[in-house]
Amino acid sequence: xxxxxxxxxxxxxxxxxxxxxxxxxxxxxxxxxxxxxxxxxxxxxxxxxxxxxxxxxxxxxxxxxxxxxxxxxxxxxxxxxxxxxxxxxxxxxxxxxxxxxxxxxxxxxxxxxxxxxxxxxxxxxxxxxxxxxxxxxxxxxxxxxxxxxxxxxxxxxxxxxxxxxxxxxxxxxxxxxxxxxxxxxxxxxxxxxxxxxxxxxxxx
Length: 204
What we know:
By secondary structure, this protein is an alpha/beta fold. It is built from nine helices and five strands. α3 runs antiparallel to α5 (79-101).
């Protein structure tokens, strides 16, 4: 069987988690890289020690939990420190993902969900990449309903992420989650065609 590993990404509020749930209902295994990273930061003792060496003991609480707010305050305006932190976490997640793939030898498709992603074949395991796309105004509305954040807070978060234009450059497929095109129909078509090279849905 020619198994395919499909990366799926999208900006905050784009609804990629909803798309992943649809795939999951259809028995497609999903690797949530962001959730696994949070787990590994706590459970992988080698990674934990490396983070403490980089950031100090304050990176973790007395109870051993990751001090996320404190870490965020340290790296927010320090790109070099953030890069160093990512250089510790990302290899650990990549190894975990490779081990995860081995658990599903009979699945024709596996999905790897992450907020940050490179194009398929760019030093990763992806055969193709799906980008979930939605207008920024709609994304802001969704996040306000979900997180009760202010509009300015949400705009600041979006501004810190890569732009939609940059994200779309890595897309082999684009799922439009704009409350106009039915997302279920788009997912079903991708599965039906077996993720062939020519995208069924595009932004054009």
